Amino acid sequence: MSETPLVSILMPTYNGAAYIARAIESVMAQTYQSWELIIVDDGSTDTTAETITQFLSDERIKYLKNENNLGIQKTLNRGLKEALGKYIARIDDDDRWIELQKLALQVQFLQDNSDHVLVGTGVIIVDEESKELIRYLLPQTDANIRKNILGKNCFVHSSVMFKKDAAFKVGGYDESKQALHMEDYDLWFKIGTIGKFANLPLHAIMFTLREGGLSSRNKITQAKKAFTLAKKYKDKYPGYYFSVIRSTIRLVVYGFILQFPIKVFVNRLAKWYKENW
Question: Which domains does the chain show, CATH number per domain?
Answer without folding.
Answer: 7-213 (3.90.550.10)
